[in-house]
Amino acid sequence: MLKKLQTFWQKLNHLQKIYFSFLAIILIAGPISILLTPKPTEIFELGLPATPPNENNPIHWETPQVSLKADDFYIIANGKKYTAKVPNLVIQSDPGNDFYTTLESQWYENETEMRLFWYFYADNLPTASISGQQWGFSEIRTYNGQALNPDWLYYGSGKKTPLSIIGIPYKIPSFDLYNRSTDPYRGEIHFKNLELSVNFKSTNLPSPSPSPSLPPNCKVGVKKFSANHYCGNSNFRYAVYTCENKYKGTTPVSPKNDCYPLSVLVKQAIEACQNRPLCAKIK
């Protein structure tokens, strides 16, 4: 066999010898290179996802006056994102009075000081009891993200914004605010699945004098309230309420596909319950 190969090789010209030499190298070296080439490590073999998931930033801030919970939260100020995921976070409230309190948060992030202040109010409606009073915010502020001489950014219309009825939390799937156009820097506040509760200083807000047609042992107002089918921009399709006398109703009475501001639905529920008092029996 070897002699035949030698004879075959001697009969080849120069170019043929080069061709067969190159072919022999490929046939011998190819399988060896395959065996020696290390298998590339894929990212999932290390237990790491190919793309990191979007991480939410849940918060739960609480003082004796205010409870704020959300599944996600951040502030954008002057192009920088603030999450309050820092060890130096300070949360406090102004105890206020029967009609006023605050939620004040302060921390350092991105080498700057950040603050988020809420100012809450309660309205003493002359025709409703404690359960019929509204509460909301009159102003929301954040710092502007400036390291030197930070100043306030203002959010909302600057007017009172009703959120719910005294004793009933405010819940909304998405709560996003942008600062006023007159501010020199841009700001944004974002909450996902926001739940906000406010307890004003007195647990017994002054109740109006009962109507002359009712004895003094009657309660008038909304006991439970729930807005449903969120439409965006603090609007809902309808609300379900329960009066003090356990009457249950819906506002509007025949819900359509229209959307209504939460303040309108709250007002309609209060008005519907004003003529449905709960009077205790006098022994």
Walk me through the structure:
The chain folds into two domains: 56-202, Porin; 215-283, no CATH class. The strands form four sheets. Strands 1, 2, 3, 4, 11 and 12 form a six-stranded antiparallel beta sheet that branches. Strands 5, 6, 7, 8, 9 and 10 form a six-stranded antiparallel beta sheet that branches. The protein has 283 residues and is α+β, with helices and mostly antiparallel strands. The model is unreliable at 39-51, 126-131 and 203-212 (pLDDT under 50). It has helices at residues 2-11, 14-36, 262-273, and strands spanning 59-62, 66-70, 72-77, 80-82, 90-92, 100-109, 112-122, 134-143, 152-155, 161-165, 170-178, 187-198, 218-219, 222-232, 235-243, 248-251, 260-261, 278-279. The longest helix has 23 residues, at 14-36.
Describe this structure in a few short sentences:
With about 280 residues, this protein is of the alpha+beta class. It contains three helices and 18 strands.
**Count of strand segments:** 18
Shape annotation: elongated
Termini, distance in Å? 125 Å
Number of structural domains: 2
Level of helix content? 10-25%
Poorly predicted ranges: 39-51, 126-131, 203-212
Content of β-strand: 35-45%
Question: From the 3D coordinates, which CATH architecture of the largest domain would you assign?
Answer: Beta Barrel
Gyration radius (Cα, Å) is 35 Å
Q: Which structural class fits the helix and strand makeup?
A: alpha+beta
Helix tally equals 3
Q: What oligomeric state is this?
A: single chain
The CATH topology of the largest domain: Porin
The main pleated sheet reads as:
6 strands, antiparallel
